[in-house]
Each structure stands twice: as structure tokens, then as C-alpha cells.
Amino acid sequence: MIKTYSLDVMSYFLTSEEVTLNSLMKTFSMSEQEVSDELDNINALLGDTVIVRKRSHLYLTEEGVDVTYQYVLKKNQKLYSFYSPKIRKTLILIKLLIGEGYNPLQEMADYVYVSKNTALADIKELKSDISESIEIKYSRSCGYNIQGHECDVRNTLADSIHTLLKIPAGKFILFEKGIMEKDEIFHLRKRLEKIEIELGIFFSDEVLDALPYLLMGTILRAKFSKQNLDFSDIAHDIKGTKEYPRIKSIFWSYSFLSEMDLKYLTMQVLSSSIIDFREEIIQYSEMNMEELVCGLIKSIEENMAISFPKFLDLKKRLLMHMKPAIYRLKLGLHVYNPLTGQFMEKHHAIYLVVKKALRLFEDELRITFTDDEIALIAMIFLGEIYQTYEEKLQPVFTAVVLCRSGTSISKLLLGTLKEEFPKIKFIDVYSLRKFEAQPPAVDFIFSTIPIHTDIVNFLVPSLLDELSRFRLRKQVEEAIESDASKQAKEIMAYLAELIPKDKMDLISGKVEGFFEDKKLPVPLQEKNVDLLKDSSQITIVHENVPWDEIIDLAFYEMGNRQSITQDYVEECKKIFYESYETMVIGPNVFLPHAAPDKGVIEADVQILILKKAIHAPNGSEVDIIVALAPCRNNEHVPWLLNLNDTFLNDEQKNRILESNDMEEVLDIFRRG
């Protein structure tokens, strides 16, 4: 017999964006042991592991969402007898955006199971929440209606549907309320999967799950709305592409769609995909996309003192990304990047550099990149930086990354993991669909979603912070130390050159047997990349320093060490005073530098700690200057990334600024 609150716990999982151990304990007044017992009870009841626990976070598996919903539906007939305020307002907004004509207040109140007063309060809040370009109109005799520019209305509808889809049961709400039909969504998805193959475009799992619902929202709006749709400035470009005839054909069953509707739907599809590089697709009427992308890469190289050896691969990847991004921006469609805030905080320096470099596109195309779009492009560059710098040690183990998100996020995660685990050869990033169709034969899987597999796997966030990295390193070490075959594999990799090939299997078996018997751990080597060798590379400045003298002072000691030429100093002055706003490596921490071929004799660094902060011409405060003479082959990049982490840690940065002891400051930097 199922416990009385098990159905409530299941519903809680289905209707919450995030579930933690603490939230369950608080919501249901249970102890940690009672929660654990309850989860075991639900998993046993449903005949599978539908709920997975990773530390304090709890997740419904992909299959678990459907299984749990069907069980709750069988017992309760419907998932909801009431809605949270957020879901309630979202449903009211969707009804207004899709519905034809006016909606009486009582009808909307009944629709979301509340009183007229509550529905009225929700509508008042919606009026202040929605875009200024659309408006909720009221008629005493008829009720409520939405009016505004049709593109803005459709974008708001897409945002509202996406809000519902963020919770596990979001799609079921759309079905329960009769907004959409399950069969129609199924057929739309199958058609999208077909054109994905035919046109050489790629949808991430995350996008493919949501896109049929977003397209159906547009179709329903087009069916019931009499408003004219006009985005003629780019509609002509869409009609001229090879993709348009094929994409519009998937909507053949909706005969009421106008040609402008079909162009808009095509734009939604293209802006959600990654398009394989073809010259005829990426051209715009009066500009050369390839030239702009090359200019973007060169700008990043100059501002970050780095060169990208795989220039052509990076260019191709950016070309594939920029086409749909430009479509989105021209149409006003919103990209959903849940990591933007974290990325801007953790990698603020590269975010600013990319933001400035993107002005090339903004000036040429008369568009403005949003924070979400900038962060996605910055992720591509940071992922490339991580992959550019790899240890020369031969990898011992193999792994894949399983990620439902798009290319920018998944490639950044892949690059981060490669940099973090040089002994692991990361074969590729897998979508969930690819993983299920072609299970890889690897030692480890690093996944952003819970999965069922016999392969050792680690659940990781899409963006790894320092705490996540520490925990993950520990988990990987423990996985190796607890597995005799993996310990033997690691030892044999180190001894491979010393052992005859015909003896490898024999010795490997004996080594594995030794670890199986003794359970002795094999210590993992730590990387140590550091330009900061001693305290003489740190200068504590107590005097006021004029802005126009700060670069000469910053590079003075490096000149004495003969690490750089005077020409290099002059080049740094020229670049820094023109572009100092983007030459940052932390809050109020500036990074003057130039390319190595401008006069670097030996890679070096000098850090100035200013006891009396100076102010740049734009008013920003300058606390620390990191004068850099970069390596020629980017070996300095991991050290810079670690330095960035140090400056983002308020406690560590404050200790650096407060100290008067150069040895103490050196120790803070080394401990990170």
C-alpha cells in the first residue's frame, strides 16, 4: 500500500524546477532518513530508479518523468488541483496570447482554479511584467485581450511556453489544459528529426525537446490571430535559402498558414539549430561573414595574448554559430542560456573582450548582442583556449561528455574537463539520443543529466566552479583508486616503453591482481603551471602613480631582468591606453600585454599591488596591475585562468591588497 504522502512527493518532483534534500525535508516536514526511505519507496513502487540522488540534489530521470506522471495521473485523474502563482500567470498569459478575441475574467479564473479576485491580481502583475511593446487591453463587456506588434507577441508566447517547459511536468500541463495535442507534438518532432538529417543541421537534445512546443505555439497564434506579421527586412533572405522549401514543407497539414507565417516558422527552426558550413548560406547581401569572423578571432587573439593554432576549425565553428544567432537577433527571438550569470561572474575578463570584439558584427549588421548571446560566443572561445593547452602526457583513460545543451556550453565543458584531467582522453560530446543509439566503450562518462549505465559516470554541472572541480577531482581519484583494473591500466601506461609488447598482457594481469589483493592507491600527479616563480615578481606600491606612468612602472622590473625589450613596453603602452577597458583579469585588476613577437625574450610576469588605487579615464578603479610577457605557445593560459579565479575570490583578493609582505602575497597566489 502506497504511503499517503508519496503521491504528493511525486507531484512535487514533477512541478519543481529544482529539488534538493533540504527542500523536501522542509516541504514535507521529514527527517533526512525519512526522505531517503520515501525515495526508496517510490523507486520500488514504480519498478525502476526514477529518482536519482547526487549529494544534496535530487533528480527525476528522463524516463522517470513519464513514469511518475502516468502513475500520478492514474491515481488523481489530473496532476493539478491548484497552480503555483508563477504557473498560474504563465497559463493566463498563454491563453491571452493564443486565444481569439476577448477572454472574460470568470473564464480565466476557472481556467486556473482560482477566484476572480485572484485572477484579477494575476493580470495586474502580468501587465507590469510583459514587454512594453505589447499591452493587455480590457473591455467591460468582453474581458481581456492582448494587442501589440505581432513579432513581439509571438516572442512573448515562446517565452511563456518555455517557462512551462522548465519544470518536468510542463508539457503535461499543456496537454491537460488542451492547449496542445500530444500526437501533433510527436509528429512535429519526427519531422524535425528528419530534416535534421536531410539538411545537415543539428539540434541539441534540449532544443529538440522544446522546439515542437514553441513551433506549435506559433501555429496556434497564426490560426486564431488576425494580426499582420511583418518582418520584411529579413524575410527575403529566408526565402532565398535552400532550407526554406524543405522546412516549410513540414507544416503542410496547417493550410491556414500564410507565406509570412511559414517564413517566421522557418526562422524559428534555423535560429534553434547549428548549420553545417556552406558558403552560400552564410553570405549576407553587403558583407562577408567569413571576413567578420576572422576579424573577431584576431581581435580576441590580440586582446588575450594568445594564438589559436586550430584557426580554421575555430572559424568553422563560429560560422556555424553566428548564422542562427544573427537570425535570432534580427527577429528578436531569445536564446536561453542558463549559465550566463555564472559565466559573466567567473569569466568576466573574456566576456568583456568578446563583447568588445562583437562590435564588428553589430556595426555591420545593425544588431545588438544580448548578454546571453555574448556569453555563448565567449564559451566557444574559452572552450578553444582550454583545448589549445593540453598536457603532453599520453592519456591513460577514455571518456565521453554527455550534455543536453547546445554546442557552446558542451564544448566549453569538454575543454574544461580536458584541462582538468589530462590523463583522460575525451573522445567526444554525446547528445542523449546519440548515447542511447551508440553507447560508447569508455572508462568514464561525465554527464550533465542523471543516466543509467554500467560505466562509471559522474554527474557534473554545465559550468564547473572551484568547488565543483574539487569534488569532481576527488570523485575521479576515488573511482580509479577503488578499481584494480584502472590502477593497473595507469601503471602500465607509465611503464609501456620499458615492457616488451609480447609481455604486456601477462604483466598487466599480474599488476591488476596485485592491486586487487592489496587495494593500494596510485597517487595522481598534479599539474603545476606557474609564471610566478618568486617574490621579486611582486611589487607593493605605496605612492600615488599617475595613470600615464603606470605601464612604465609595471614593466620596469621585467626590463631589468631582460625578459622584454623596450619596444615591447612601448607596444604595451600603445595597446593598453587604447583598449584598457577589455584588458582585465578580475574586478579592478588590469592585464597589460602585447603579442610575444613584439619583444618578449622570456615569458615573465610582474604584479603591482597599488596601496593607493588609481582611476582610469572612464572612472574605473585600478587596484592591481598584472604586467604580462606571454609565452609563444600559450603555455601561460592555464596560469592566467587560475589567477582569474584568485582575483574573483573576494577573501583572497582582500588579503592580497591588505598585505605588506611580498612572500605572504606570493603564498596566497600559489595556494590559489
Give a written overview of the molecule.
There is one protein chain. The protein has 672 residues and is α/β, with parallel strands linked by helices. Among the domains are: 71 residues, Winged helix-like DNA-binding domain superfamily/Winged helix DNA-binding domain (Arc Repressor Mutant, subunit A); 109 residues, PTS-regulatory domain, PRD; 92 residues, Rossmann fold, CATH 3.40.50.2300; 137 residues, Mannitol-specific EII, Chain A. 55% of the residues lie in helices and 11% in strands. The protein contains 31 helices and 16 strands. Strands 12-15-16-14-13 form a five-stranded mixed sheet. It has a four-stranded parallel sheet with strand order 9-8-10-11. A three-stranded antiparallel sheet has the order 1-3-2. Helix 22 links the parallel strand 8 and strand 9.
